[in-house]
């Protein structure tokens, strides 16, 4: 019995440990690339806030010994980079770059070997294809003798490849464990000469290959699904390779006057016209028109003079509007533009009503940051109107303008000689006409919040930098003090330069040290002069005596 109780307690304890707490880095954006800086190659890791422009960190790690003049990138996938120079071919694993000053990479082939390759993973060596990779200085290599020799790349990931020759398109699925297995499958009915690749959002793990009459959903591991029959059941039977991908996240394509999209939620059932069989269909095909917004994500379609939410694949929730819907264009979120500006309500049955703001008003997009939200805005010369996600026509949020200059500077609006962060105004002094935003970086005080009561919450501080014709300025989200960086020359700093902003942060208070030195040196000079004068006076008096 005691053992059971202990097991229960351990299970409860473990479940509390694995509960997901809120962490700042759940919301950040990470990118990697190889860059040339000052004549040397570096692995660059960049992490940014969800607003897309505020840096969290950026690291440049030297690819020590790589010759820039002969450098050539063979390929990149989700796991790493493969590149060559005059001394050989190298593999850099992205997950190994967290520690150390220099980048870690390993030689996998000698110079001149593996010139013919598929994305730096499959190499044609001694008349056959071989897979070669290296992680943590352990090389994995095995041959794929059944793979045709004259193939070219269509799309590749670290363990899954889609290639083609002049006859077929193939999916290659690798198992790089100790068994070192591989599978090669032909995508049936696909013409290699007509094949196109549609790259969608990486988080979906679902891209597409298509020719004129056949279409496949493909995965990063080499698996694929033929969706051709689903498209036929929708009445769409040709031109799959001539579509334009309008929204990769949904995904949604335009084909002539029609759109094809992945259904949101449950599939529908249709009859396969070739077999008469009733099948599940995960796609929607219609003559609707996508309303591509000026900013933000796609939210609506236009169909038979009505506007519908993008997820309404059955067109069951038409908007209510007094003017013709074809006069409207999407701006951002629920904001539309026509004869004037219109807004789709939240609770009044998708009613789109005029908000009585002139169509000549200037639009500024919303800026969502982790610790704040700058709403989209309209400016008509007399007022700045803040358009939140729950805009109320009866209690509109607007501010009268007392100055002509209105700007969006990073995650702020500048108007009435003050910065506005979506909640408060902070008066500043600057040359407002020439004032620009250099950028910002985040200082993470507490990265994660615990699940238990009274535990510290996530805390971050945003450090912002600006410049005008005369000065460079600093402002942060904690103190809200507008500060001139007196020792900085604006011509030395460009926008969106992480290293430049870090340097500015270090010298933002240097002026006080310089002033102290000047005062100290002036006192010593004065003291020396006094000593000399007193000495001369004493000498003269002594001579007279």
Largest sheet, if any?
Answer: 4 strands, antiparallel
Instruction: Report the uncertain regions.
Output: 1-20, 512-545
Helix content: 10-25%
Strand order of the largest sheet: 4-5-6-7
> What is the CA-CA span between the terminal residues?
113 Å
* C-alpha geometry: flat
Number of contiguous helices: 4
Keywords: Membrane, Transmembrane, Transmembrane helix
Protein name: WG repeat-containing protein
Organism: Pedobacter changchengzhani
What does this structure look like?
The chain is mainly β. It has four helices and 46 strands. This is WG repeat-containing protein. Keywords: Membrane, Transmembrane, Transmembrane helix.
Short summary of the structure?
The chain crosses the membrane at residues 524-542. This protein is 12% helix and 41% strand.
What topology does this entry show?
Elements: H1 2-17, E1 29-37, E2 40-48, E3 55-62, E4 72-76, E5 80-85, E6 88-93, E7 106-110, E8 117-118, E9 122-125, E10 128-135, E11 138-144, E12 152-156, E13 160-164, E14 169-175, E15 181-186, E16 196-198, E17 207-210, E18 215-218, E19 224-226, H2 228-233, E20 244-247, E21 252-255, E22 258-262, E23 268-271, E24 278-281, E25 283-286, E26 289-291, E27 300-303, E28 306-309, E29 329-332, E30 335-337, E31 340-344, E32 352-358, E33 362-364, E34 367-369, E35 372-374, E36 376-379, E37 383-387, E38 397-400, E39 407-409, E40 412-415, E41 418-420, E42 425-427, E43 436-446, E44 459-467, E45 472-476, E46 483-484, H3 498-507, H4 510-544
Antiparallel strand pairs: 1-2, 2-3, 4-5, 5-6, 6-7, 8-9, 9-10, 10-11, 12-13, 13-14, 14-15, 16-17, 17-18, 18-19, 20-21, 21-22, 22-25, 23-24, 26-27, 27-28, 29-30, 30-31, 31-32, 33-36, 34-35, 36-37, 37-38, 39-40, 40-41, 41-42, 43-44, 44-45, 45-46
């Amino acid at each position: 019995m005691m053992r059971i109780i202990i097991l229960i307690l351990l299970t409860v304890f473990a479940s509390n440990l694995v509960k997901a707490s809120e962490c700042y880095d759940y919301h950040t954006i990470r990118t990697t690339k190889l860059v040339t800086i000052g004549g040397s190659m570096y692995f660059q890791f960049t992490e940014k806030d969800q607003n897309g422009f505020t840096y969290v960190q950026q690291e440049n790690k030297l690819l020590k010994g790589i010759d820039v003049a002969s450098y050539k990138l063979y390929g990149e996938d989700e796991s790493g980079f493969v590149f060559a120079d005059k001394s050989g071919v190298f593999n850099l694993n992205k997950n190994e770059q967290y520690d150390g000053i220099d980048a870690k990479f390993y030689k996998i082939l000698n110079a001149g070997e593996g010139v013919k390759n598929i994305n730096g993973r499959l190499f044609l060596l001694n008349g056959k294809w071989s897979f070669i990779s290296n992680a943590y200085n352990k090389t994995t290599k095995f041959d794929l003798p059944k793979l045709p020799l004259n193939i070219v790349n269509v799309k590749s990931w670290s363990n899954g490849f889609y290639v083609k020759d002049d006859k077929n398109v193939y999916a290659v699925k690798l198992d790089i464990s100790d068994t070192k297995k591989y599978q090669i499958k032909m995508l049936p009915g696909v013409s290699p000469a007509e094949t196109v690749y549609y790259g969608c959002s990486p988080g979906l793990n679902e891209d597409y290959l298509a020719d004129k009459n056949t279409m496949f959903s493909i995965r990063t591991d080499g698996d694929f699904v033929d969706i051709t029959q689903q498209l036929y059941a929708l009445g769409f039977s040709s031109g799959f390779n001539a579509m334009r991908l309008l929204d990769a996240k949904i995904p949604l394509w335009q084909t002539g006057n029609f759109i094809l999209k992945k259904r949101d939620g449950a599939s529908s059932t249709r009859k396969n016209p070739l077999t008469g069989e009733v099948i599940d269909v995960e796609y929607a095909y219609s003559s609707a028109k996508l309303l591509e917004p000026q900013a933000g994500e796609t939210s609506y379609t236009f169909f038979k003079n009505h506007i519908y939410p993008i997820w309404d694949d059955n067109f069951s929730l038409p908007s209510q509007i007094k003017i013709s819907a074809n006069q409207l264009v999407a701006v951002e979120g629920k904001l539309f533009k026509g004869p004037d500006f219109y807004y789709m309500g939240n609770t009044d049955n998708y009613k789109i009503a005029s908000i009585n703001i002139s169509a000549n008003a200037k639009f500024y997009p919303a800026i969502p940051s982790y610790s704040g939200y700058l709403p989209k805005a309209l400016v008509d010369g007399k007022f700045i109107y803040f358009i939140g996600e729950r805009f109320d026509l009866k209690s509109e949020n607007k501010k009268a303008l007392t100055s002509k200059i209105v700007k969006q500077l990073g995650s702020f609006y500048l108007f009435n000689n003050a910065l506005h962060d979506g909640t408060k105004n902070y008066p500043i002094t600057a040359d407002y006409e020439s004032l620009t935003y250099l950028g910002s970086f985040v200082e993470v005080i507490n990265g994660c919040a615990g699940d238990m009561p009274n535990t510290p919450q996530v805390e971050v501080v945003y450090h912002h930098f600006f410049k005008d014709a005369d000065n460079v300025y600093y402002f942060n989200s904690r103190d809200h003090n507008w500060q001139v960086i007196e020792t900085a020359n604006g011509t030395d700093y460009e926008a969106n330069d992480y290293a430049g902003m870090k340097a500015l942060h270090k010298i933002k208070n240097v002026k006080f040290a310089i002033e102290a030195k000047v005062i100290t040196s002036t006192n010593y000079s004065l003291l020396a002069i006094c000593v000399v004068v007193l000495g001369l006076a004493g000498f003269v008096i002594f001579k007279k005596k």
